[in-house]
Here is the input.
Amino acid sequence: MADNVTITAGSGTTVAADDIAGVFYQRVKLAHGADGTATDVSTTAPLPVTQQASTPTVVAVPGSATAVTLLAANTARRGACIFNDSTAALYVKWGAGATTALYTARVAPGQLYELPLPVYTGILTGIWSAAAGNAMITEVA
Here is the structure.
């Protein structure tokens, strides 16, 4: 037995449906578009997908007891990770002027810090509790 719902034309809410062999199926299909529009996904109108970039840049930033730039601002940044290859704590700040008292994340020696999603694209600065080792930084843009 079909689980059909009768809708009286002219009253109630309009429901999108497909007529398949005389039976109306509620139309629940993947669509995309700006607010107030909908384009059904099909072979002629595929779902737009932004491919993640695959070009990593790896740099070593020497440890410093004064604030240094770890990553310059980059609006194309899709991800980044910072490995503290040092015997001292690394204090990372989203923005300029990292200090051991004002920072975003403290990265212990031998630990990895990954930028969370959505990825921050501004400048990242850092300072170590003592000048030692490096920050090994990989950025994907």
Notes: DSSP finds no helices and twelve strands in the chain.
